[in-house]
Specification:
By secondary structure, the chain is mainly alpha-helical. 74% of the residues lie in helices and 4% in strands. β1 (60-63) and β2 form a beta hairpin.
């Protein structure tokens, strides 16, 4: 089994090298299986396994009756594979996800403060205003997720936005726990969201970064005390 995996890994590496070197570009069709296997010095079985693996992570697109193509290699699409892996997280790793969020999300918030347009700013305000005075925990969490999703989208970096979107799922349960158990969580979330929004609206990237850090670190610190 290990030997088979090693051969498959070698085949994956060779196809990857063709893409990195520009021999295969996004949208290109791969050569016929026997020709490609001979060219790369691989068995057809190992090539087949490599193609199957690369199609699972959206690098290749196998079209029945037509051939195998290199996908667009769009970052958001490739990160679907990360989302799949993230879905298998355990509760004891949620602090690690929050730590990564604390590193990435303030940077996205600072970029949003520099790049956000008036229309996007209006939409972000609407999200904040949509939260009622006495929201349920589900409403609070849904609003929190949408607020941060829109900020990440306004950062103007699709890769960063996709990474943060992939990380939002594992921290959703922590948000719910906090809303249910921490006194004043709703007020604190609303207050910090308002501060983040005003820093973005006034085009102050470092202030926006600081408020985003405080916001995420608060959840991280609270969870660290109870797990």
């Amino acid at each position: 089994m290990k030997e088979r995996m090693a051969v498959t890994d070698e085949a994956i590496g060779k196809i990857k090298q063709m893409i990195v070197a520009g021999e295969l570009r996004p949208g290109d069709r791969l050569p016929r299986e026997p020709d490609l296997a001979e060219r790369l010095g691989l068995s057809r079985n190992s090539l087949r396994e490599a193609v199957k693996a690369l199609s699972l992570i959206r690098v290749l697109d196998v079209r029945q009756g037509d051939g195998t193509y290199v996908t667009s290699l769009d970052p958001a699409m490739l990160l679907d594979a990360l989302s799949f892996v993230v879905d298998f997280h355990r509760d004891d790793t949620v602090l690690q996800f929050l730590e990564v969020r604390r590193i990435l999300e303030p940077a996205a918030t600072a970029l949003a403060a520099q790049r956000i347009g008036d229309e996007e700013l209006g939409k972000l305000r609407s999200v904040l205003d949509a939260l009622g005075e006495d929201p349920s925990i589900d409403e609070l969490v849904a609003n929190d997720l949408e607020f941060h999703r829109q900020i990440a989208a306004c950062a103007g970096n699709k890769l960063l936005s996709s990474l943060l979107d992939s990380l939002s799922g594992p921290t959703t349960r922590a948000r719910i726990w906090r809303g249910l158990t921490q006194e004043g969580a709703v007020h604190k979330t609303r207050e910090q969201h308002a501060a983040i929004l005003e820093a973005i609206a006034s085009r102050q990237p470092e202030l926006a970064r600081s408020w985003a850090t405080v916001h995420i670190a608060g959840v991280e610190e609270w969870l660290g005390r109870i797990v």
